[in-house]
Design a protein that fits this description.
single chain; about 90 residues; mainly alpha; two-stranded parallel sheet; about 45% helix; about 5% strand
């Protein structure tokens, strides 16, 4: 449930940077969503193909067919970790 809440929260209300540009979804959040929803991961590395740049670039996040510049994934950084903690506090 938390993975779904985190993804839906970001998808509907994306965080913005100081220039008011939408920040991308963290790749770890995408993988957590697909894992929580019992999708099958890739046998090679355990990650989900739906969270790879080539898949998102051709089918959009969550297969929405929305191919805009703000519908991208970011590799996990300190920003991803800090926003994850904020979202967890909000939904508790």
């Amino acid at each position: 449930i938390n993975a779904l809440k985190n993804v839906l929260c970001w998808y509907n209300f994306p965080k913005c940077d100081d220039a008011n540009a939408s920040l991308p979804l963290c790749r770890s959040s995408c993988n957590a969503y697909y894992k929580a929803c019992n999708y099958e991961s890739n046998d090679t590395d355990g990650l989900f193909d739906e969270c790879r740049d080539d898949h998102v670039g051709s089918k959009g996040l969550f297969n929405t067919q929305t191919l805009t510049s703000d519908m991208t994934l970011a590799d996990d950084t300190a920003v991803c970790a800090s926003t994850e903690a904020i979202v967890d506090e909000m939904i508790e």
